[in-house]
Design goal:
Number of domains: 4
Strand order of the largest sheet: 1-2-5-3-4
CATH topology of the largest domain: Methyltransferase, Cobalt-precorrin-4 Transmethylase, Domain 2
Strand content: 5-15%
Length: about 350
């Protein structure tokens, strides 16, 4: 049994678990309700039964339902227990709990059955660690941080493609979940390689991003006042520069920091944004040259004199025109290719 540093459950807890039909032989978790109502995600092992006690009132029960919904699906069965009414129980779906609390009798415990085996992040870590072990898979064992670069890019691209299928309103949740799982696997494999090589652990990566998010959101976690998104980004850039300076990472040029592996149109948008902030470029002025550059492009096309540099300049200007119109050129082209492919496939 897993509890808050408890080795054995009190007799009352065991009795309550039996009322809630928890199979004691596989063990279960017990936590008080107040451990859930002040957080967004429950810190529990979803592959073990969960017993929650000490539910003060219906408001706490509703907040509890909201927190559990971040870890369990709406269709997940649960059992509410009132031990003061001769162990009266009621079976519900988690998604129903928040809406039926007013109809329930006094509730002092809630039982959440486990999710299927293999549903947790820990399960993925265990599988990947086994694949990297001496009795694991030769391919996984021979991977390095450098060799995983291609796989990571490929998995990111497949997640984006799965999301793209929602452009026309299609509900593609299953494929997105599957591809996101593949991306997580690539990330966990990179993590396991780093652990095996003594470079860093999961805690190092988590501490880095958690502290960074808190640091870069002083308007949420501090007392900084902001007026709009532009002010948020200005603070973000200033804090980021301070972080780099503290690490001795001097930014040599305002255009530094754009990942080289970004798709070309998105890379152009990022570079233009940085150049605009540094007063190295004015998107409005650049966008005004669009008609002129299109005319030049047409003349070159008619005389078979097109070259790569001319096309690149036109696309660079197009990115500025799109941004001025509140559009993202990369997203627009991705969306169109999805619609085109779908339309052609439907016709055949």
């Amino acid at each position: 049994m897993t509890t808050e540093q408890s080795i054995m459950a009190p007799a009352a807890l065991v009795a309550l678990a039996k009322v809630a039909d928890i199979p004691l032989e596989q063990g279960f978790q017990w936590l008080p309700a107040n451990r859930f109502t002040a957080v967004y995600h429950p810190t529990v092992e979803v592959e073990l039964p969960l017993l929650i006690t000490g539910i003060a009132d219906r408001d706490e029960l509703r907040r509890l339902a909201q927190t559990l919904a971040n870890a369990y699906p709406a269709a997940h069965p649960i059992t509410v227990v009132d031990s003061r009414q001769n162990g009266q129980t009621r079976h519900l779906l988690l998604g129903e709990l928040a809406t039926v609390t007013a109809e329930l009798p006094t509730v002092d415990a809630l039982c959440v059955p486990p999710l299927p085996e293999g549903s947790s992040f820990a399960a993925l870590q265990a599988i990947v660690a086994h694949l990297r072990s001496p009795i694991g898979c030769p391919w996984d064992r021979e991977q390095t941080l450098l060799s995983m670069r291609h796989d990571l890019l490929g998995e990111c691209a497949e997640v984006l493609e799965a999301i793209d299928h929602e452009i026309d309103g299609t509900d593609n949740r299953e494929q997105i979940a599957e591809e996101l799982g593949d991306l997580f696997m690539a990330g966990v494999l990179i993590l396991q390689i780093a652990i095996d090589e003594g470079k860093f652990h999961l805690a190092d990566a988590m501490q880095s991003i958690v502290s960074k998010l808190i640091r870069r959101h002083p308007h949420v976690f501090g007392d900084v006042q902001v007026d709009g998104v532009d002010a948020i980004w200005a603070n973000w850039d200033a804090i980021k520069a301070e972080e780099k300076a503290a690490k001795g990472q001097v930014v040599h040029h305002p255009l530094d920091g754009v990942p080289a592996a970004l798709p070309a149109l998105e890379k152009a948008r990022e570079l233009q944004s940085k150049a605009q902030k540094a007063s190295l470029l004015d998107r409005a002025t650049l966008a005004m040259t669009w008609n002129e550059k299109v005319s030049t492009f047409q003349r070159s096309h008619e005389t078979n004199a097109l070259d790569e540099a001319q096309l690149g300049e036109l696309l660079w200007t197009l990115v500025a025109v799109a941004q001025r119109a509140g559009l993202n050129a990369e997203d627009a082209l991705r969306s169109y290719t999805v619609r085109y492919k779908t339309q052609v496939q439907k016709q055949q």
